[in-house]
Amino acid sequence: MASASKRKHQAMYDDFVKRKDMKREGYASASLHTFPTNGGNTRYTVPISTGVGGGGGCVGGIATLEGGVGGGSGGGVTKFDRHDPRQVLISEAIAKMIVRDLQPVSIVENQGFRELLQLLEPRYTPEAQHYIQSQLLPAYAYQAQLATRQSLASAHALTLSLDLWKGFTGATSGYLGVTCHFLTSDWQMRSALLACLPLTGGSSGNRVLSDFDEVCHSHGISGRAYRVVAEPFSATTTVKPCCLPGFHVSPPLANGLQEDAEEGLDNCKTLKEGMRYGHGDCGEERDWEELWEKGLGGIRVDCFSRCLEQCIREGLRSCPQLSSTLAKAACFYTYITSAVPPEKLSQVFDSPGSIMGGPGNNPPAARDWTAQLKVLRRLLDSMEFLEELSGPGELALGVSEKALLRELTDTLEPFTEAWDMVHGDRQTDLQTDRHVSISLALPCVLGLRKHLSETSTPRCPSLLAGLSQAVESRLATILDDPLYITATTLDPQFKLTWSSTPDWHRQVLIEELSKHSRAPNTIDPNTDLHPQSQTPPNLVPSPVSPLSRPCKLFSFIKQRPTTQAKSLEQELAVYLREEPTDEEALHYWRRKSIDFPLLAQVAKRAFTIPACGTAVENIFMTAEHSLRPERGRILPKNLETLIYLKANFRLLWTHS
Hints:
The protein is mainly α. Helix content is about 50%, strand content about 5%.
């Protein structure tokens, strides 16, 4: 069959062989001494052992320079030497694939995978699973740790985030992720996962705090964190992403998406059963909160985006009649996406992400309440057009049902706007250092409260009441918190334009600024002080030009007026007199740090606190979705290493 195909398409086959030979010649011209072995990062080298692999006749065998074959088909082909840059490049590409997709390392032993490698590059010797798992991946992890420690040593300000992924059975009950958000000397915000540690079945709050302290100590940041973002309810249960109850889209012939819908249904059932406040057991949550308050002190803060999601969850649960109507809307949506031609649907859902479950779309989007709400809004806006295309039927929504869904979308629209401002494009930002600080939180809460006070929901009053109650209980405390007042006011796009009582907020601001803008004291590096009491060491003063001394020679030059250092109140007054600007906050303070040195000292700390979740949180959710036992996927033995490398992907492979 293969020879017949070759004769039938001889020209195409010859062209393929020609291009492949050209590619090999290009590889052969590479320099063995200057080739980067780490995705373009030449700061570190990967310690690769030469003793891994089987004999010359095995698939994983090591070739010799005399032309020994590493096994498999392709007899007579000279294999790459172990240190050949082409061998290293392919091995690194395989490791990157495993990390990026959280694939089990055992994939390199699969026969189909090895046949593909043999077809693409017969001279490559496939690496053994043991080598990748015990040497290559740990070597990359070591590089990431070394680079992170070097960056943190010179960081001007930093905040830590704690993420817990629970819900497993057996020896490992979950994982602890510790992420650091830090500001470099040139005002660039960076985030790095410091550690991903497995939790044993008996892990308690004290054990988690002990592991957290050990991670901080090993990275040299004990006592340096300005704030720690951690929530007690994330420690008591694994809270799945919020979704619209009943709105589960399952396109035909998409088994994976069908499972997604079933998972969403289970999620809603779980929320209804015994989860009074959107978490697990309330008593256990209070125990964790007391423990963390005792262990972390007053530096613990809640994650704004998670609190916002909890408000949505509680609001939706307060209106049970929405579920049946949303389920009918989902059925109608599924019907039209299968019955209406794609060119017609593109007039309504004009962006790829607007069609959930369509070709090329990411399935997890169907489980995100914001994505579902946007699809529902498009559906309602074009309902007449879609009904005309699909024709009359039992799936068509009635007038009252359309009005109820319109009420839902209008009520939740500002919540969607707040969520999008905090999160942005998740898929685009997964491999970037996008950082949104808590300066957005206070204006968002004010806007949500104003919206809810002016909104009327005659068809579903319980929805409005549930949302209002959730916002007051979970988010209203932000409005009086000096930390959030400081962060929002130091954001040049807001300043005090949001305040109805600027004089009172100005006084609160001065008191808060005075706590953190004092001249730094010398700190013994071996002393672990309270996090708020430690500051980076004093900078070496700039040398003074000898020409600045007074002398007769320059007596004709007018004497410069003496510049007195401004007080904190003076800096704040000048800063607030300036008009707000849309300039990015960190860029603004980098430019203004000379004019407002005291304010800049506080700004660089406040803006390290993130308003949304971390990269490892998204990775936890992805892993939970793809590694479920019912899908036949088992947890890789080195899952914590894969998660660590995936979260720090850009740190290792910045040119990927």
